[in-house]
Sequence to fold (669 residues):
Amino acid sequence: MMRFATPDVRGVAVTARRALAADAVVVVAFPESGSGPPVVVSSAGLGEPQAERLGPALEAVARALDETPTLSVPSLLVDDAVGAWTFLRVGYAAVLATVAAFEGEPVGAIVALKSAPGTFDNEELVTVFARQAALSLARRRAPAPSVQQRLEGLAALDRLVLSVSTFAELSAALDAALAPLFDAVSTGIMVWDERREILQLLPGAFRADDATTAACSVSAFDMHSNSARVFTSGRAYISNDAREDAALLDRYVERFDIDRLLTIPLAMAGQTIGVLHIVGGARPFTVQDARQAEALAPKIAAAVELSMTMFRLRTQRRLEELLADVAVAVASGQRQEDLVANAFAELGDVIEASLLAVVFERGEPIVHRRGEVAPALREALLAEARTEPGMRAYVIAPGMPEVDRGGGWTAFHVPVQLGGRRLGTLAALRTRADPFSQEERHAMSRLANLVALAGATGRYREGRAELALLHERQRIAEDLHDDVAQILFAAQLSLDAALEGGTLDAEAARTTGQARGMLVRGDTAIRTVIERLSSPPAADIGHRLASAVSSVEQEFAQAIHLELPAEAVAAGKRLPRQVSDALVRVARESMVNAARHGGPCRVTVRLELPDQEHLELMIVDDGVGPVGRHGASRESLASLQQVMMSHGGTLAVRRGPTGGTRVVASVDL
Fold:
């Protein structure tokens, strides 16, 4: 009579059923005495009543495996098939079975069943699952090792977890702790990445460099991978001849020079978080090694989970400090270029980005490179930042050594915007297939906002400085006019009176005439200086608009918001003097109209460059006064329209959808 035992290999049965696309998988254990029926220790897709009914057929399969290690029957409709009629009566038409042997000793078997005739998927994996089940069955027979004393050997790991700052340091600490326990050469931890559904090898694993470990990841659903099978089944696996073991992926065996391998699942609070690989030395791994490693697994899993949480919190704290420093730098008026360069240098270290860049809509990008980045990959990232304005995040899988040394890469793009207007794109690149975390992406989005604010603040400070300079020039011009020019003019009048009085002799008259000539020349020079100081350069429309805004603000006590993008001001310098005069006149007249007739309102003056051929000046207010309500306003606007038309421009005046007035003047460049 078949009976169920402790189902400690159920994970193997469930995983094998999925990989083989079977309707049921049964794991049986052979009796240690060699006599008696096999015992069903676990199954997937098969209940106990069905197992009882299949008892004779399973015993027949077990006897048949004495002659052939693997039994594959695609159709049980053949009369001489082993246990055929029993399987068919229960509802199964195909069977695949193999011996589960550990270190050459058969300890059980694994049997897969299908309702429909035909071959199984991935039939070659049945022997792999059998060896994994054999380790668990052999583990049941072996006495439990005394690990209490050996756990003390890992006490140092607890202290090291609190002192390490990288996964590479954690891997080194784990190597040192496990080496004397298992005669281990090295270790490697793969952690479960739920977002990508992969197992990723942590830095420092197998004492390899970061580029190599970053390129090592496997899908949790790839049953050809030893890591995926152990993770999914929750059972350990031993290979004492890794180079000849078809259950291991050749590329990893060769890359990390593995001869012997013990792999165990790492679980914490009932949740599997990854797997631990232990690379052995000259001594073969035993069942006792597997039991001891499984006993240590919760302690190691806790150390890994604690380290991951601690590293994540440290990264968040450093990102917050970085953003706070950038905000202070913006407030203190640091130049945008210096601010971005300093922020990128620190940010690159925190998030381990190989390249960070701000690609502006106009102007040269600011690029910071950390480590080696292939020129082709760098240019591709910058080109994408220029052409893709939206937020984007993606990961490229390993496999392009001509571009990224074969380790893949991940990229993140976020727009740099101010007031809904896109100024450029912040782009980040990491030369390994490891996506930026949510915290890292959020920090870069906030940094993009600060970069935009730094540019606006810089332009505002420059505008205020230029406006202050303009006011100082005007003050000096007024002082010269009120003092020096008037004195010179009074001196000229005195000399004119002396010359006209006729009381001077010839020599005195000649000398006085020379003095008057020099006074005239001096007066001319002073007035030339006054004119230059009081008049901004003809094409400098930015200065002139700032001066007009300041004048209206002082005259009407009306706050006015001025927006002068650098590219628009630069383009405005190409305008002829008369066109600049017309635009400034439109701006002043519109601001005065808003201040006089709009009531309490907000006024915005904005210079824009919609394209490379046109320049637009907008004056927008949200006042209550209708367009042209005042007679003088209507006449002045009509006059301004004529002025703009005479210079090949246009002037449009519209009522806002919720009130107020929008004046738009457009000219050709």
Remarks:
- The mean pLDDT is 83.
- The longest strand covers residues 105-114.
